[in-house]
Amino acid sequence: MYAMVMSPPSAPAAPQPSAPSTIDVALHRSPDQRWGFRLQGGADYRTQLTVMRVEPNSPAQGKLRVGDAIQTVNGKKSRQLSHAQASEVIKESGNSLKLTIVREPNAAACLDHIRPPGKPKFSRPGS
């Protein structure tokens, strides 16, 4: 005589965290338009160049996200670029810019600790 043993149904697997994605981004703008993103970091800060802000209604909106790590700027590896050098390469790119980014899930939340509270306050030089 054989006995049938039934095992309980297995629970669904826990969702795995999403892996980082490497993405090639091409931005295009009109001559009087800004790119619409701000960087932080660079070799001089010993940190990865990272997107800190994306402006609404800009060429960067919908293509870049806060927290995206910039790997290359127009083919130049960003690890070797200071913040000023990266900014210069971007300025020299004309109206087309190619970036390779690594997008980590929830990367923007990792930057919250470095944002000062409240609205930014700026003053004019010499005032």
Structure notes:
The chain is mainly beta and about 130 residues long. The protein has a domain at about 20-105: Pdz3 Domain. About 5% of the residues lie in helices and about 30% in strands. The chain has one helix spanning about 85-90; strands at about 20-30, 35-40, 45-55, 70-75, 75, 95-105. A 4-stranded antiparallel sheet has the order 1-6-4-5, covered by helices on one side. A two-stranded antiparallel sheet has the order 2-3. The termini are far apart. The model has no long low-confidence stretch (mean pLDDT about 80). Its main location: cytoplasm.
Provide key terms for this protein.
127 residues; two-stranded antiparallel sheet; 4-stranded antiparallel sheet; Pdz3 Domain
Give the arrangement of secondary structure elements.
Layout: E1 21-28, E2 37-42, E3 47-54, E4 69-73, E5 76-77, H1 83-91, E6 96-103
Antiparallel strand pairs: 1-6, 2-3, 4-5, 4-6
Biased composition (Pro residues): 9-18
Subcellular location: Cytoplasm
Region (Disordered): 1-20
